[in-house]
Amino acid sequence: MNSTTSQAYSRLNRHYEILDDLKVEVSITSNPYQIPVDALFGMAARQNAKRGFLFVSKVLGKHIPVHPFIPFAGGAALARRYAEIILGDYHAAGQDDLANIFTKPELCQSQWESIADNYIHLADPTLFIGFAETATALGHAMFSCFQGEARYIHTTRENIPDIGNFFDFTEDHSHAPEHRCYAADPDLFAGQRTIVLVDDEITTGNSALNLIRAIHHRYSHLSFVVASLLDWRSPENHRRFADVERELGINIQTVSLLTGRIKVNGSPVIKQTVHRRRDSFRAAEQKVDRIVLQSSLALKKGSSVNSLNRANFTPYLAATGRFGLSAEENRINNFELQRIGRQLRKLRQGARTLCLGTGEFMHVPFAVARYMGNGVFMQSTTRSPIHAADNPGYAVRQALTFANHEDPAINNFIYNIPAGYYDEVFVFLEREASYGQLVPMFDALKRTGIPRVCCVAFVPQEFPIAPPAPMGSYNTADVVFLLKDIGSMLPETETEEREEAIQGGRHYSEMLPKEYRPTEEYIKLYHDTLTATARKVALAAGIVAELIVKLRGANIVLASLARAGTPIGILIKRYLQYKYKFDLPHYSISIIRGKGIDENAILYIRKQHPEADIQFVDGWTGKGAITKQLIAACKLFAIKYGVTLNPDLAVLADPGHCVPLYGTREDFLVPSACLNATVSGLVSRTVHRDDLIGQYDFHGAKYYREWAGQDLSRPFVDTIAGYLVAVAPAAEAQAEIMLKEITEPTWDGLKNIQAIQNSFGIQDINLIKPGVGETTRVLLRRVPWRILVDSVKNPNLKHILMLAGERSVPVEEWPGLPYSCCGLIKPVGGDN
């Protein structure tokens, strides 16, 4: 950008060539303190069709990093001007040379300290309102110069529905036009004599008039002051202020450090055509330290809701002024902010430190930064999209873009961080966020070459998801079910009725299937099968446990998929306890085909184990529907929460060739597949219905406490666990062999199922359930049509043949079947 001034009027007229054909001519009409114009602002092009240019403040600490005392000196200068114009006090504190305070940091500090020692007294109740997001700190700094009947509040773009007494208004030209104003004290507005609106610059004054109308409509105030660093209103805009005064019967006065007129030529820059330098600087490994402060600063309860309709229950910090603040409260807060600044000074590791506020959260970080020592610069993230250009004199040379940590649908920006310039950055958060939420910002900062990030949160994160209630009959040392007991809320549905509903379009997870009560003959078959296969199951569990620990290490949490995965997760946990002395946390959670994984359960696990990875575990694979659902769920979770989950599912048996981590690919009878709840902790299959499962509930299931006398859950895992020591050498040896041969899943089972689908003309592939485990489920809780087997002599099929006989279901041998068997569900309305 070229900035030119005319020779005759170099102090009064300026011409800015911004980008492309966009030009702005500035004529200065008043500069009472003779502050150098170049010390107040530069110019840049906004990515905004409504207003294509931006006065980039060199005072605010928003888009341009500044010395910590400069924003406060800006507030002090406005306070002095207010005292002169509004109060008629030309002997107010702070009589230093205001012409140089923004160019000489030592003057900034002395000017501010002079004000702090000699407050301007306000006898009449006066409320200062800072405009979000840019002027929240400026308004606070101005307010901080007063004592007596001074109050402060700032507008916000936060949506806090559980705090009442608010009004809203719009900022017409803004990229984020909606403003809200909340007041913890319902009398905050009503009891004021004068309302002072504080913004960094006024071009038309429309935003100020919109706020004045909103306040007057509700509270009928008569006296308003609009204070700004810059005032560029045209004669027409001045007339509009006068019109509003007459219309509402009010008085509006203005206070500014610089006034003038502007003339805009050219069009907003829609698509940037100028050269933008790409720094080739590559950062070293970024170190991230995270601190949650312990302080005496008061909190304000209130849950926010972001644009994705996700709630955040963490309280706010009262010291920001978002909900109202008195002069005395502010004075007391300043002592604590000084203490925090000195505390953080001890944690500095570099000579050149950037202190970074986030969005509206500016004043508190800026106040802290003043006491963090020499070599500190400060600025804030912003929502404002600005074109960056590496042109001499242009006000925005570098730009970083990333997703907002509290609302990933909103982009945030950091401007003017040259590559390799800072030794470290302190990022200040009002409310603690998870590491995953902050990764987009951290990744953006990596590109600047800053080797260390210290993330400082003032309010610890609150977690709305309650700990799980006791559930299931397993020992809690083996597994914790992250499920909500909905047994008393939902009756079981008869098998035929449920089948008709599912095929009629109702989701299977919205009904509770009727549990099969096994006959004595069937229970005997289960025990015989357990005796025959316990060692085989133990070996497979040992193999997959070895693969997990060799590939993922010990810093993991087991998350078994209820309910078939639950006993397998217990066996893996016990094997690793014996073999490696690892006592891994193990939770059992819900995943539902077509609905996804229980995100609340994942969030709960991450809250309890923030540094651990999650390993998902299931019993077996069929055609891979749950495997695909898990992959999709992990992708969605990363998008929503910024957290990457490993979707590699670990299973005992993988006859479908759907996963890389498995104990065997033989389709044999896992004894737990013979029974339902009575061998799965007395827990039903999982349920999800909006009328039963609230926003912060886990998915549901029924706990069959009444079946305690028939429960075989613990004896099942105890029997198999008895073989874990004996099979450990073979399990480790087999795992070593398999590690050399791990390949991507081939989905061979699915290909065969698709051939069966075509042979029988079945329209819905979900009516085909391959494998011993899935076929068992068909016979126990669906309406089976026929059973396909590889051979009726297969020893793994004894219970299948028994159940088929009980339900009069035809059994048909199917040559070339890669599974031991396959269950076909009867289509509603006939044989297909």
TrEMBL record:
Top-level lineage group: Bacteria
Gene Ontology terms: biological process: proteolysis
Domain Orotate phosphoribosyltransferase-like: start-end pairs: 40-260
Entry keyword set: Hydrolase, Protease
Gene source species: Methylomusa anaerophila
Presence of keyword Cell membrane: no
InterPro entries in alphabetical order: PELOTA_dom, PRTase-like, PRTase_2, PRTase_dom, StiP_N, TRSP_dom
Domain called TRSP: residue spans: 320-445
GO molecular function: peptidase activity
PELOTA RNA-binding domain boundaries: 747-826
Pfam families named among the record's database cross-references: PELOTA_1 (PF15608), PRTase_2 (PF15609), StiP (PF11202), TRSP (PF12500)
Top-level taxonomy: Bacteria, Bacillati, Bacillota, Negativicutes, Selenomonadales
Name of the protein described by the UniProt record: Cysteine protease StiP
E.C. designation(s): 3.4.22.-
Domain Cysteine protease StiP N-terminal intervals: 472-720
